[in-house]
Amino acid sequence: MSSLVAIVVTHDSAEALPACLGALAAEHVPAVVVDNASRDASVAVAEAAGARVLRNARNEGFGRANTIGVRAAERAERVLMLNPDVVLRPGAVDALLAAARAYPDAGLLAPRLVEPDGRFFYQPRSLLAPYLTNPHGRLALPEGDACAPFLSGACLMVARDLFLDLGGFDPDIFLFYEDDDLCRRVADTGRALVHVHGAQALHGRGRSSAPATGRVFRTRWHQAWSRAYVSRKYGLPDPSPRMLAVNAPKAALAALSLRRPLIERYAGSAAGALAALRGQTALAREGLDR
Questions:
Q1: Exposed / middle / buried, residue 166 (Cβ in 10 Å: 0-12, 13-18, 19+)
Q2: d(CA 120, CA 53)
Q3: Measuring CA to CA, how many Å separate 188 from each of 157, 193, 230, 254?
Q4: What is the DSSP letter of 49?
Q5: Nearest to 69, CA basis, from 83, 84, 54
Q6: Of the N and C termini of the chain, which has fewer Cβ atoms inside 10 Å?
Q7: DSSP string covering 81-115, please?
Q8: How confident is the prediction along the chain (290 residues), in pLDDT tens digits per residue?
Q9: Angle at which helices 62-72 and 178-188 pack, to 10 degrees?
């Protein structure tokens, strides 16, 4: 049994993938690449790097594809799920595995994610962790390992059995907030979420897929819809009415300016909120309900 297998979900990720897979190979971590119907050379790049490739006939979304990959990694004790734009620094895997041994009550572990500008990502609160005493999200960056209310899905390590026992990522979410939801479910089992400071990874943030027309609209649609979905799931106030009221007028003003990125941004948020209010699903939007 392999102690650790990496799961990398791709969708038009050929440009970012070589650095990601190269770093995994340098850390001696085998990779399973789950390709979400890429139109570029993602599959060829992954195969050339020696990864095991699972080809989805359609784009299954981030969480659903990760769950497919985890199920396929049958001989793994732990899985490391990471975006194609995440590059592990030397020693990161050893640090994560050492932390797993040091903190046996940890359910999820994540490395220190260093952003392109040199800062590192740490989110001091989560929409789904209202029981934690940091309601305004005061940012106090850890100087060492720390328990956290949220760990980014950009790079997560978890015991395979635990992940599958919890049902994997919520299959009704296509994109966004699936990591918040998983963190909440792991925390609800009494297990800790641990930020491992000594494990470092570079995060390209938003470079996992190549730019495409309509991508901003689609992204904002799913952000708005998924936020409404997880809020309802955990009995929180539905943010959809406010999101619609705020973004619909902005979309109309953006249309007057003829600035496509702004139009897509605000119209996408308004459309996602409206879809949530109407009871439409993310899977239906993406044709995954058929």
A1: middle
A2: 31
A3: 18, 11, 15, 42
A4: T
A5: 54
A6: C
A7: EE-TTEEEPTTHHHHHHHHHHH-TTEEEEEEEEE-
A8: 459 999 999 999 999 999 999 999 999 999 999 999 999 999 999 999 999 999 999 999 999 999 999 999 999 999 999 999 999 999 999 999 999 999 999 999 999 999 999 888 888 778 887 656 555 656 678 899 999 989 999 999 999 999 999 999 999 999 999 999 999 999 999 999 999 999 999 998 655 555 567 889 999 999 999 999 999 999 999 999 999 999 999 999 999 988 888 999 999 999 999 999 999 999 999 999 87
A9: 60
Closest CA to 286 of 234, 197, 221, 208: 221
User: What are 265's two structure tokens?
Assistant: 């941004």
Closest residue by Cα to residue 153 from 228, 89, 79, 49: 79
Token pair 């938003």 is found at: 206
Give, in order, the Cα–Cα distances in Å from 212 to each of 22, 131, 219, 268, 283: 26, 39, 11, 15, 20
